[in-house]
Amino acid sequence: MPLSRRSDFWGWVLGSLFLLLGAWFISRKPYPQFPPFERPLMELYAAQDMGMVLNGARRLGADLALIQLMQYYGSAENANPHHPRGRRRKTVEKPHDEDGHEEHVHLHLGSEGTADATNRPFQSFPQLLEYTLRGGSLDPHFHFLFLFGSGALAFNLNRGDEAMTALEFGLRGDPSFWRYRMYQGGIAYRKIRKSKKPSPT
Amino acid sequence: MRSILAIARYTFLQQFRNRLYLVVVLFGLLLVAASLLFGALAGDQEVRVILDFGLVTAEIFGLATAVFGAVTLVVEEMESKTIYLILTRPLPRPFYVLGRFLGLLLAVGASMAVMEVFHFSLLFMKGWTPDPAVFAALPMMGLKIMVMTALSLLCSLTFTSAPTATVFSILFWVLGHFGNEIRFMADRAGQWAKVAGELFCAVLPNLSLLNARDVIDLPGFGLTPLLYGAGYALLYTLACLALSAALFSKKEF
Amino acid sequence: MGDHVAAISIEGLSKTYRRSHLGRVKTSLGVDGITLSVQQGEVFGLLGLNGSGKTTTIKLMLGLLFPTAGHVQVFGFPAGSPEAKRAVGFLPEIPYFYKYLSGREVLRFYGRLSGIPEKAISARIEEVLAQVRMTANAGRAMREYSKGMLQRITLAQAMLHDPRLMVLDEPVTGLDPLGLREMREIIHGLNQKGKTIFFSSHSISEVEKLCHRVGILVSGRLARVVNQSEWAGEHGRLEEIFVSTVASGHQKAFS
Prior knowledge:
The complex is a heterotrimer. Chain A contains eight helices and no strands. Chain A is mostly helical. Chain A has a domain at 46-75 and 124-201: Serine Threonine Protein Phosphatase 5, Tetratricopeptide repeat (Alpha Horseshoe), CATH 1.25.40. Chain A starts with a helix and ends in a 5-residue tail after the last helix. Chain B has one domain. Chain B has helices at residues 2-16, 19-41, 46-80, 84-87, 93-125, 132-158, 162-177, 179-189, 191-203, 223-249. Chain B is globular, with a radius of gyration of 19 Å. In chain B, 51% of the residues are buried. Chain C has a six-stranded mixed sheet with strand order 6-7-8-3-9-10, sandwiched between helices. In chain C, strands 2-1-4-5 form a four-stranded antiparallel sheet. Chain C is globular, with a radius of gyration of 19 Å. The chains are: A mainly alpha, B mainly alpha, C alpha/beta. At the A-B interface, helix 1 and helix 3 of A face helix 3, helix 7, helix 8, helix 9 and helix 10 of B.
């Protein structure tokens, strides 16, 4: 290659490195972003969720998670825990933290050896919490998803503890959303009222 | 300048006369229409689902036309030797690269614009209240595709085979969205892994920085990060074009 | 640039092709040590067998390939520089065009790339189309053109920017007798207007009729340059010279 072309070539290469360096400096500036996606929470939808993350479509992934949650919650088979065709979906067992990090939500999603890896085999909609958290891990700012899931758990299915878990997860994503606190208050109030009711004699 | 525009114009026309390009655009429009079905399943969140689905569809199909266009334009042109009569003109070689890039960008931009006009008409039909944040996200989508167009052009000049160039372009797209996760994992793996991860992420396009359509509800979304994103996109694109010019300057035909 | 500057000046030009495959590098000789000068206003023909290096030489002159050694200048400018390219019109052996464009659109595109002012382009296109007798068919898409029509449009794009040097790679290959005659007349007409013509060919009879000098390439080397006076008036003389040069060139290669 002639000398003039060689110098052209290296000139362009150096120029591009310089521009890349400039781009890198800018990328260090703060910008709004989701927290890193650690792992899919439901094995059944792992490929779908990873596909959404890898295409930068976490918001859409959360939308699809909401649709799937609503389909799950609207299905008669899942409502009846003894239905012969009731679906049991495998969940990913989340490991316990060894360092006791407070940020992690501890979910006892199941014991090894059971067919569906849940420890609530005879509940209606046993995986409603998992569906809620799955969508929330994709878009931690999806308020409707958390309110829908926790509302159904607390006020329709009387599973206040799971509802609180979902709301805590939502608060980690968006501490400023006051409705989560309102729901928590409502759930706590309901629990207190129940405990104060005299037991029938 | 005239020669750059002449090449840009004919690149644009070449794309539009390509049947496969038109099929891709049509398919994109159909998928945007399909967002109505998904929206219907989402109850109260219908408008949000239609919005997100349409934006992602337009972006993915914009990527498809960019990658397909860059690969077929450059690789096929070099194989078919139509490039001989261009390079024997008094045209500096970087002008050819720039002209091809601009023409391709125009064609991709036009396809995305058509899809988005259709998308927004569906949204308005469904009673969507215009949100300035969404309109701010649209140019960021365009910038993201601009970066990918430049990167696809670079891949097509680097790899002589069309399938290889396509695969690498898609790989950059995927890794570009996974940068935060790569940094997160590298941070936990030790000091050297952290440095390697940082270097790796510096070379990869940071598409999360341009992913405004996903973060319109997040705190901190505003003009400043958008300007940073635009600046990043411009510099990264110029870096790719400069490298493309370097590679093209030493190509023999 | 004055008239004393050679249209083409080639000094010690060599090109070795290197191809790497799975770590192995294979080299093959394109051209080796070519030294040649073509004066302004001359018609110079390059003869050689297939694979003798004719197209390689032309590509090196046009900046499509880079020399391994030596240099090429066109009107005193380095080959491949914008100044050199401005002075050259190229007719490739096999024309490659965008099939969906019409003849006129193709010429407009190349006219813009050649830097012809926008105001002058349309008139120049019509002028050139008339010279190559393609005015009637210029509105049709290139994919509808016959071989002869393609060749004429290819010649038209080479003439469009009125270059001082025309480089033609196998301009008469595949043409019928009428096409051959028309091409010969066009080349002769261009030379009459002061253009320098450099062309490669297999056709000894066409070279005989048109050229002032002929270079004979054998296995990448310039074996001999023959003046018109050496074959003029003797039918078949150039062919004899060519055959004997090629034969002795191969003998040298084997020894």
